[in-house]
Structure formats: structure tokens, C-alpha cells
Amino acid sequence: MSRVFGNTWALTMSRMRLAMRNRAFLFFSLIMPLAFLFIYAGIFGRGRAQAVPYLLAEVLALTVMGSFWGLSVQLVTFREQGILRRFRVTPVGASAMLASSLLSNYFLTLPTIAIEFFLSRSVFHMAGLGNVLSIFVLVTIGTVTFASLGLIVASVTNTMQETQIINQIIWFVFLFISGATIPFPMLPGAVQAVAVFLPATYLVSGLQRAMIDHTTLPYLGMYLASLGGCALIAFVISAQLFRWEPESKAPRQAKLWAAAAVIPFLLLGIWETVNGDLRSHAMKNLNSIREPYTMERIER
Predict the structure, then answer these.
(1) Is residue 82, in this structure, part of any structural domain at all?
(2) DSSP-assigned letters across all residues of 176-214
(3) What is the CA radius of gyration of the chain?
(4) Domain extent at residue 269
(5) pLDDT in tens, 58-97
(6) Domain count along the chain
């Protein structure tokens, strides 16, 4: 077991070094999220401090969701270039390879999150930090979840072109009907009915509640459980479908297996449709942009 952990950690460090040398990675993982922060807080929020917690939550969600796009493209690139084939002759299994992908992505995401908080406080004069523990747990589980979904895409596609097409479709859905760009209460009712089945919706809502209402972990339990369940299912399926060789093709039933990763959000979406309060929380959080931000807005 210690040897497995050792191999995974060695791979993680190697992946981090490779990523830091990649200009495209630095652009999409650091420069673009910070650009979103200045656009959201500076233009959409008009520089008003009371709007920053709401808008920062959306920027944090976009930063976390970026793991989905980055890992899927990276893994397919490694497979097509024969890089994964080289690892096959080493004592490294598919699970260790995928785990190193998740860990390296997570450790490289944290500095961007920290910089976003620093700029929100120093440049846009955000009054508080929200519930730091809830935000940290949401960012951690969210990063692993969306990275695992990226691994799923890489496992069921055969070419980079196919990967990019699927990525663009899924990313478009995550981006525009989850509340990350257009506030959830402003979406049409039919779109809201679909959005409650998306993992991105609960990440955005959870971060907004933690930032604005200081919501504690027990009140975010269903969100966290669904994100964690999705990550676990996606990781297991990705490990089973993992391919080292560029010539290997995904089996026909691979996409059906991949669909199992969204089962936790199908269940949560059904519960939210019948009994949930996501819509009321979303409206309350949106109103925080219009109302003065006070530390008394704490949900107990």
C-alpha cells in the first residue's frame, strides 16, 4: 500500500512540474480566472463591495469547474502522444495515474483560489470571507468532482476532436444554466427545472450560501454528498475504462457506464423539485447585491 501511495505522489509531483511549464495551463488556470474576477466584480458589480461576495462565489465556481475541461484534454493528449504508453511499463496502475491527475489539479487550483480572495479583499474591498470552512470543503470536493467528470470524458472518447465536442457541449450547459453566469432566479422556469439536475448548480449555490449567509457544513450536507458521490462513481468508472494505448478504442457501452456518474444529481434533482429550497436561497442571495452586506446575514 505504501508503494502505491509513493508512486501516486511521485506522479503527482511530476504532473505538477509539467503543468507549470505549460503556458496554456497557466493561462487557463490562472490568468483567465483572474480576468473573470475583474470582469464580474469590476464591471458587473460596478465595484460595489456589497456585490463582491455574490460575484466571487460565481468566479470560484468557474475556477473549480475549469478542472473538467483541463483534465479531459490533458489525458487525451497524453494518450494520443504515447506518453501514457511509457507509464505502462512502470509499476503504476490506472488508479494511481488518475489519482495523480486529481491531486495535481487540486494543488494547482488552490493558489488561484487564494489569489481571488486576496484581490477581492484588497482591490474590491469585500467585507468578509464568508464561512471559510464551508468554502474550503466545497472547493475541495467540487474540484475533485469536476476533475473526475473530465476523466470520464477522456475515458469514453477516442480522439481529441470528439473530446472537444463533448467538452464544449457540457461546458456550455454548466456555464449558462447553472447560475455561474446568469443568476439562477433570472433563468426561465423551464431552464431552472433542468438546472436542478446539474452538479454545477449546487456548486454555485453552495458557494453563494457559504459566502453570503455563512452557511455551515451541515446545511450543505446534501450538496456535498451528491458532489462526493458523483466524484467517487466517476473515478471508479474512469479507472475501469482507462486506456494506455492510442490505438485502443472505448467499448460501445462506455458512454452508458459514464452516465452512471450523474445518478446522485438525478436523485438530488428529484428531491429538489419536490421538496427543495434552492430557488428561495438563490433569490435571497441575489438580493444581497441590492441590499447592504452585513455580518448579521448568517444562516444558523
Answers:
(1) yes
(2) HSSSSSS-GGGS-HHHHHHHTT-HHHHHHHHHHHHHHS-
(3) 19
(4) 2-287
(5) 999 999 998 887 788 888 888 888 888 877 766 678 888 8
(6) 1
